[in-house]
């Protein structure tokens, strides 16, 4: 709690020393980074779930492993697209 | 996980020695990516000029390279063990995302880079190619009868052979 209070004091002091434009840019960078981090969490969980289910399916029916791997690969790639969209949003917010 | 049965084999210790379906999928994706490349590069070239074209081409190369690396990692590690495949899929996701981020971050200030077409191409090419591929995969999974069959030349019937 004490550490959090100290961080808040330091942040307030830094914010007071910055110009409004710098403060806005600083906040935008922080929010963009946070958005990218949040956007990567969901796909990470999704890929884990897809892979877990694929392993389960391959354990139950090893003869269907080819079909399972096909759908797994496409599912993972689709889930990854969400992270790419988050990344693109970050890049466009931060640099464009 | 511990099991006293001597016959017990963990599924994670199993491996797949069969053909790798990921390689076939990625070959299709790359073929289709090359097929639509003129549109994906031409449209940004029309709006942003030569820089837009270079950026879109770079974005398309990133997407196709990402697919190829993902497929190679899965098919290579599946031959060793499913546990390794799991590691390669989960950590590969983080590593490939980091490589894509680095590939965009490092060129962001280059003169030939336009960030908007580069980022749009990454998303559109990735999702579009996957939907295109999914259309064929889902069709052949739901209706196996629709899967194209390999026909040899001997099996093909020509009009001349019918007449004779």
TrEMBL record, chain A:
GO cellular component: plasma membrane; proton-transporting ATP synthase complex; proton-transporting two-sector ATPase complex, proton-transporting domain
Family annotation (CDD domains): ATP-synt_Fo_c
GO biological process, any: proton motive force-driven ATP synthesis
Keyword Phosphoprotein: no
TM ranges: 28-51, 72-93
Gene3D superfamilies named in the record: F1F0 ATP synthase subunit C
Principal location class: membrane
Keywords: ATP synthesis, Cell membrane, CF(0), Hydrogen ion transport, Ion transport, Lipid-binding, Membrane, Transmembrane, Transmembrane helix, Transport
Family matches, as InterPro entries: ATP_synth_csu_bac/chlpt, ATP_synth_F0_csu, ATP_synth_F0_csu_DDCD_BS, ATP_synth_F0_csu_sf, ATPase_proteolipid_c-like_dom, F/V-ATP_Csub_sf
Subcellular location: Cell membrane
Record's keyword annotation contains Cell membrane: yes
Residue intervals of the V-ATPase proteolipid subunit C-like domain: 32-93
Molecular function as annotated in GO: lipid binding; proton transmembrane transporter activity
Mode of membrane association: Multi-pass membrane protein
One Pfam assignment: ATP-synt_C
Leader peptide range in chain numbering: none
PANTHER family: ATP SYNTHASE LIPID-BINDING PROTEIN, MITOCHONDRIAL, ATPASE PROTEIN 9
HAMAP family hit by this protein: ATP_synth_c_bact
Record function comment: F(1)F(0) ATP synthase produces ATP from ADP in the presence of a proton or sodium gradient. F-type ATPases consist of two structural domains, F(1) containing the extramembraneous catalytic core and F(0) containing the membrane proton channel, linked together by a central stalk and a peripheral stalk. During catalysis, ATP synthesis in the catalytic domain of F(1) is coupled via a rotary mechanism of the central stalk subunits to proton translocation.
Similarity remark: Belongs to the ATPase C chain family.
Protein's UniProt name: Unannotated protein
Gene source species: freshwater metagenome
From TrEMBL, chain B:
Predominant location: membrane
Sequence intervals crossing the membrane: 33-50, 56-75, 82-106, 112-132
Annotated signal peptide: none
Subcellular locations according to the entry: Cell membrane
Keyword annotations of the record: Cell membrane, Membrane, Transmembrane, Transmembrane helix
Entry-linked Pfam families: ATP-synt_I (PF03899)
GO CC, alphabetical: plasma membrane
Topological type in the membrane: Multi-pass membrane protein
Protein name: Unannotated protein
Organism phylogeny: unclassified sequences, metagenomes, ecological metagenomes
